[in-house]
# Entry
Amino acid sequence: MAEFKFEVVEQIGVLSENAKGWRKEFNLVSWNERDPKYDIREWDPDHKKMSKGITMTEEEAKILYEILKDEFEK
# Structure
């Protein structure tokens, strides 16, 4: 199996935390030494283990922002 690399380039914000200390976070993450992307997923307290999540380009994150803004302005 190929080695899997990641680096949390910037911790932007914590959305929630569960009883075991795992936190759902919005971060900028570089996967396999590629350009960083915006990312939402749960991380263990040491950022060594993670859940499945979603990554977005800057353009996708901007579109999501507009969708959320429109939704909450109703």
